Amino acid sequence: MAELETRWHDLGEFIREQRRIGHLSLRKLSEMAGISNPYLSQVERGLRRPSAEILNRIAQGLRISAETLYVQAGILD
Hints:
Layout: H1 2-21, H2 26-33, H3 37-44, H4 52-62, H5 66-73
């Protein structure tokens, strides 16, 4: 179970880093992804496990491939 928690935490850290690289505020990315600001914050802190659809939206907002997030989440190898 700890491995899954670590993976979600790492995914959140990766999303946060990509957001910072893109000079996007949490609020701006949440608007671009069509998700709530608190939900995105929880994803970044590893407290939520986003669905593939949410990962797609976040990837679009970050202008990166969804596959990149799937790999980070452990959905794809």
